[in-house]
Amino acid sequence: MRKSYREQKEQRTKRRRSRSERRKSFKKISQQESKKLQEEMRKLVSECGLTPGQIADFSGYDASNIRRILKGYRKSAQMDTFLALLKVAGYSFKIMKNAPEDDDFREHRRFPPPPLEKSNDNDDEP
């Protein structure tokens, strides 16, 4: 039996709300992760022994922008800026694949990922 227009509309609204709530939660998590990354970057850059002016000269960014980032006044910075600052500090950024058991989004993949390997507690069997 076909649903009424009102039922269809309620169902669409419910879907929209759930998507919106998911986006908000992901945004909050990404802001927290960004904050942690900035704190770590500030620590690494301060350990390199260069002044913010020198870091700005070597990285090619404006000195006032670098000072705001290093003092924590900026809520976020672009990834290019992070990479440039880390390079000046003597570090590099490497993208690595997550271990399958650490992949929080396995169930949302478009294609089914390979199954997780189970650890064998019985090492006696060949």
Explain how this protein is built.
It contains 4 helices and no strands. The model has no long low-confidence stretch (mean pLDDT 77). The longest helix has 43 residues, at 5-47. The protein has helices spanning 5-47, 52-59, 63-71, 79-89. α1 (5-47) packs parallel to α4, α2 packs across α3 and α2 packs across α4 (79-89). The chain has a single domain (5-108), classed as 434 Repressor (Amino-terminal Domain) (Orthogonal Bundle), CATH 1.10.260. By secondary structure, it is an all-alpha fold. It is elongated.
Set out the fold topology.
Elements: H1 5-47, H2 52-59, H3 63-71, H4 79-89
Helix pairs in contact: 1-4, 2-3, 2-4
Considering the chains and any ligands shown, give keywords for the structure.
single chain; mainly alpha; 434 Repressor (Amino-terminal Domain); elongated
Q: Care to count the β-strands?
A: 0
Percentage of residues assigned to helices: 55-70%
Question: How do the helices and strands follow one another from N- to C-terminus?
Answer: HHHH
Structural class per helix/strand content?
Answer: mainly alpha
